[in-house]
Structure formats: C-alpha cells, structure tokens
Amino acid sequence: MSTKSIVGSPLFGLVIGLGAAVAPFLWTTHAHGQTVQNWVWKHPHPQGNELYAVDIVDESTAIAVGDGGMVIRTTNGALTWSASWTGITQPLRAVFFADPLHGTVVGDDGIILQTSDGGATWVHRASGTDRQLRSIAFLDSQIGIAAGAGGTLLRTTDGGTTWSILPSATDREFRGVCFTDNRNAVAVGLSGTIVRTIDGGAQWTLQASGTSLSLRSVSCTSSGTILAVGGDARGFRAKSIILRSTDHGNTWEEVDADLQQRLYGVSLTNERSGIAVGENGAAFRTSDGGITWARLNAETGQWLSAVAMLSENIAIAVSAGGMLILTEDGGTTWAAQQQGRRTTLFDIQFADAQLGLVVGDSFALRTSDAGETWERIEELSSALRGVTWLNARTAIVVGRGIFRSSDRGITWTAPNAPDMEVLLWNVSFADDETGVIVGESGVVLRTTDGGETWARVKTPIINDLRHVQFIDSSTAVAGGGAGIIIRSTDAGRTWTIIESGTRHHLHGLHFVDGNVGSAVGFDGTILRTTDGGLTWVKQPSGTDIPLRGVRLVDREVGVVVGFGGTVLGTRDGGRSWTPIPVPTREWLMTVYLKDATHGFVAGWRGTLIRMELDGSQNTDN
Description:
Number of domains: 2
Largest sheet: 5 strands, antiparallel
Helix content: under 10%
Distance between the termini: 49 Å
CATH topology of the largest domain: Methylamine Dehydrogenase, Chain H
Radius of gyration: 27 Å
Shape: elongated
CATH superfamily of the largest domain: YVTN repeat-like/Quinoprotein amine dehydrogenase
Structural class: mainly beta
Strand order of the largest sheet: 1-19-20-21-22
CATH architecture of the largest domain: 7 Propeller
C-alpha cells in the first residue's frame, strides 16, 4: 500500500461546481444560500493564503490546500502551479488522493469535499459534524478515516460518499491519521494523544505515548514504521517531540532529538527516509527511520506547516505564508514555488480598460493587459499609499514622498514639493492640472500644474487624512481620523469641517457623482451622503469589523472591503449590505470596480485578487 505521509493530510484540489447564473453585479444569493462568483488570484502567484497540507500524487501531480477554500495544483512536476477556489470560505486543513483521479479534502465546520476527476470539480459530502477536521487518510478506494477537533473520528466504507461518526476514546483534538495496512491505523493529537485501530478503523483504543507534548503530524509505512512529530512552547523556548513505532503503533518510543522547534509536518517515503518540518523554516531529514535527524536548510524563515515526499529525493513543503518549496535532492537544496512580494497593498487605480497600477509598502505593480498580468515597478520601492491617474499617460503615487510618471507608469520622477516628514495617504485630481494630496496630521498639498510642483495648504485640523476625492471641478471631500470630514469648494484652496456623525476613524471614501458618496471606517462604519458631502447618514453594515475601502458603481450598487477578508455588497443604495464570500481571510485594504462585473480587491501580504463575474440576470433570490 501507499506510504504517503498524512501531514495535515494530502489531497487534490480545484473548483466545486460553480455554475449557477450570477446577478448583474458581484453576488447572487440563491435559495440554498450559495453565493456565486469567480475570484482569481493575481498576486502573489499562484496565491497568497496560508497553506496547511500537501499531497504528491505522482511524478507530475501535486496538490496543496489552505485558507479560504483554496486549492493549488501542479500537473507538470512543479514547473507551474495554478490556484482555484472551491467556492467555500472555510480553511481546508488536509488532503488525500488515493489515485490521480480520486481525492478528498477536509476542513473547518466539518467540511468534506471530494473529486473524481482529478480536481476539476468537487462534490460536498455530509460529514455529520460541524467540528474542525484536521486530517484524512484512506486505506483503499473505499475505506477512509477523517479526524479532528474534540476527538472526532469519522469513517467511510463507500469511498467517502457517506460518513459515520465513531466512538472516540478521547476528547483531545486529532492532528494526523494514517494506515499501515488493512487492519492497522493510528491517529495522533494534542497533549500526546494517540489512538489505534486493529480492525480497519471500526474501533479505536487509547495508546500510551509517554509524552504530554502535542503531536501535530504522523506518517506511516506499510512495514509498520510510524513517525509522529510535534512539540509545544516551554517557557521562552520551543520543545520538539518525535515518537517512533515499528510495530504498527502498538508501542512507542521517544527519539532522543530535541530539535528546539515545534514540528508541524512529517513524511516518510519508506521505512528509512523521511523529512520533518516546523516553525521558522525548520526542516530535518532522517535516513534511518527516525532514529537520527540532520538539519536541512529550507532557505525560508516561514512557518512550514506540512510536507509530502514522493521519493527519497523529491519532496514539497508548504507554509503558513502561502509558500510552496520543492526539493529534488533529498532536502539539500529547496526552490520556492511562489512569486511576489508579501507586503501590504493599499490602493489600486486604472487609467483605462487596460492600464492600471497598484501600490503598497515598498513596491508597486503595473498592468497593461486589464490585470491579467502584473509586473513590478523597480523605481517605486518606498512606502506607498495612494495612486491616481490624471489621464491615459500621467499618474501620481504618494506615500513617503511624491512620484510622477508621464509615460503610462513606466518611469518615475520626484516632483518639486515641500519636505514632508509625514506619510501621504491619498491623491485626487479635478482635471489634468489641479489636484490635492492628503496625509498625516491634517496635511494637504495642492498642485495646479499637473503634479510637477506642490504647495502646502492650511487646514483647520490636525487629524490624519486617509482619503480624498474631487467630485466636480471645484469640490473635494476628504476623510480621516476620529471621523473627521473636510470639504473644499474652491478646488482645494480652503477647507471646512463637516460633521460626519461618527468618531470612528474613516479610511475609505468614494463618490459616484457630484452628490452621492460613501465613507467607511472602524467598527463597521458606513456613511452615506446624497448632497455632495454636506451631510452624512450612518448605514447599517451588519458588522463591527474595521472597513478600509469602498467603491460605488452607481447610486445603487457598491462594494466595501475590510479586515479578515470582509467583502460587503449593496444593490439598494446601502440600505442593506450583504456579505460576499471571498477566498481569503487577509485584511483587505482597497477595492476597485472596473464595471458591474469586474474588479479587484487588494490588501495584506501582497494580496491582489480579481473578480470575474457572469453578467447575466438571476431571479432565484
């Protein structure tokens, strides 16, 4: 039988049959509660969510799963990877493929998904539990075990179509499960928990592990050799644990190898060769069945959450930072499979249908093909916060400084401006000549020559200003700290304070015309104006999560984004806001809508995701 590791447990992944019609905007809530849209990761590549498990199916195919219902797959031996969304937002914790076509993935809230076509489509299976499932293993094409929180053990005898809850000898959380043969299997978990079955998984008994340290992963071989690894914090240092069994899990011995780092994944390719991974990029190799271990240089400081071995030379590890790393020489060298910076993106704007910029901490990206591909702008490497286009050729970027391009964002210069110690947050232009920049401590700068020179303007506040927009040729509105809103009716020369009705920090603002606009901020704050920003009314958001960005398509339709992957949509002018499922839990800082069916969200750790939506009507709500 297969000797693959059940590291968090491996699987195969892709999209869950998302074929229903979609409303003319970004979401459609059907009678069954499913929201339908397509999200495509554009940066980092292939995606940026935390990854929890990986499985190598054969020499060509490997699959990893993680946060936000994402599945990452290669079919050409890790030359390229593609990311797909399963349509659920729960973290996927484990994956197992019995063969290249049939795979199972489990996750939070009792989620079980299965594929019979190599991951092209996924079917939801009823698990009978809402517990977090952390591991999955199959003995053959029919018999499988899923394990998770609260001592949960599930068993299938029909290939995963149906699952039954088994009596458990513990209420401790399981983190790993694996079979050695058609009778013997073990599950391991927190506080040194080990349970064993000798009848193919029908009944389980508690085993003496000899440790109270948490066991976080387990790997089995058909010879009966099993390794369980883990560890916990002990004071100011971490203590690792490695347990070894050579009799199918009947007895266990602790390996004398305190590696001083918690281990989160282990994989054996045979009874001799294995790799273990853990916190801070820790990686170790054994060539004697786990008795001794040699440290490897995984060339990353990221927290490695799982590993899978195909052979003594080939292995893939995944990390909490969304990274995949590959070795083809037994762990001596590793190659990163992820491309892109992992710092926060704050603003995104397009000049036309094709040309766009996104800016963030210490980097900026440019697209000239409607966001299909993005390339880094090497000249822009400081802390950046805001971007705007004056026309199809000229752009201004602000942050720790001001930067101007007159050749469609290819090259950049620093215009003449006052020396500023503060961070500049946003910029807006009334036309090709007149514009304003806002920043910390109530700073406002103004230009009348297309951004080539800037002068400071007095304002009646010292609050940080986070966003600004010209709503006509003379009127501009800005918002910021402690609910402050200021307004100018003379193209930014002078400003007056407007009562917003809130003291929560405001971080995003957008007007769809000279009258209608929205502002968002902390504690789920959403404000609405219909008179050009003179008066504001608070709208119910249904959340207390900090909101950071807002974009309106017209007076009825808009989207708000915020922390924890929050995306809210309205189709009634903000009278109600509906949560929109999105394949990430990263903090989202900005949203841009190109039209009613296409847009982007961006935020923490370099997250940039494109929304691709069916423009057809739907009446099923």
